[in-house]
Fold this protein.
Amino acid sequence: MRYSAFSLLKHALSHNRHWQPAWRSPEPRRKYDVLIVGGGGHGLATAYYLAKEHGVKNVAVLEKDWIGGGNTGRNTTIVRSNYLWTEATQLYEKSLKLWEGLSQDLNYNVMFSQRGVYNLGHNLQDMRDIERRVNANRLNGIDAEVVSAAQVKKAIPHINTSPDARYPILGASLQRRGGVARHDAVAWGFARAADALGVDIIEQCEVTGVNRDGGKVTGVETTRGTINASKIGVVVAGNASVLATMAGLRLPVESHPLQAFVSEPLKPVLDTVVMSGAVHGYISQSDKGELVIGAGIDAYTGYGQRGSFPIIEHTMEAIVELFPIFSRVRMLRMWGGIVDICPDACPIIGKTSIDGLYFNCGWGTGGFKATPGSGWVFAHTIAKDEPHELNAPFGLDRFVSGALIDEHGAAAVAH
Amino acid sequence: MLLIECPWCGERAETEFSYGGEAGIARPKDPDALSDAEWADYLFNRTNPRGAHKELWNHAQGCRRWFGVERDTVTYKIAGSYTLPVPTGKKGP
């Protein structure tokens, strides 16, 4: 056991000067069996499951900055699986099942808290959509229920369910197994567990080119030299198009800034997750007491990790509409992550036209919840050189065949 | 807040505009002649560059006209706006 009450006390007495790093910081070797480009949650999970499930341990994760410094540390940490279509539901449900055992599996407390997720309905069409989605979920074996405005009010006393509200709350869908997790711990837990299985995690190592020989990949150029591998998995979220261009590919994704906010810490006031597609905001309260708030993307494409002012105003309007009690809460921090949006709001996980090059991208605004599941199916895809049945519908070929999985409106705007 | 120059109305706040995505994507003249992959490329694939980007904007809460803007997608600095070519009405090749 690395961490215990005794170790905390011991290190406190020595002024916390002797903690050991949770993972190694190796020099990159010249050759690996598999390279994972992108050291966010998805990339680290991919490396972890490659080593654990498939015995592929000669793996390096290349991260241009530091572990978990991108979207993994920039989201609102909501986990749920109540999507509309069977393909999406099964993929996110696989992930939710992994979340349920993740702290044990990684031996690292990711603080996964199944506090329930409410998706509010504000008009009759919202409620029809909610009923349709809840029924679809139940047919797929996902826990879901429709709750009335009175039940919402009982569970969340501070929410404004007045019929006089500009956008009155008529009811909600509720997934009780949904919730939140600590995003940093997810990155650290996967990094430590992958490292322990022999995966090299190489930070401050930016990929600048993808080397090919005919129709096969041979390795990558990086800011720390050439690294060779016959299999390369790219999991770089907002920068997917940049990496695709290096490999001579075109992707159906566009990168947009998505903002999140935290307030000053408050006493416990909200013990669940509330999302509204109609007023377009979502909110939960962290264990530290901060309100964690998110909303929509900037309409224009962008790679600057910050958001625009009109979105801040819009987000605050939405939250105050739902919770008038929060009108005088001050925001502590806000930041932006770059999300790669697909035309059908579903990810791309699979092979490309180049042998040995695999892409996992297009998660858009809702990738955090999928972290373990995304890594699990991507590891399978790389190890077996073919997709798992869970991610087979999510290939790039769906944009040619037309078999899109349209989750845009269906799963509520807010992912 | 972006300050976007409409070629007809001058500089206005970004909230007056709606975004139209990547500029210069011409609709294929004869879609039936394309393969599914070529049609998918026209329909879905985007350059999505990190850096200079030519894009379409519509002055939705102003003169409602479309125009082009060149903007850097990292710094969000706008290099300038331009009017779009006017269709001639002549049939293409």
Remarks:
- Chain A touches chain B at residues 239, 241-242, 245, 250-255, 299-304, 308-310, 343, 399-402 (CB under 8 Å).
- The two ends of chain A are 37 Å apart (CA to CA).
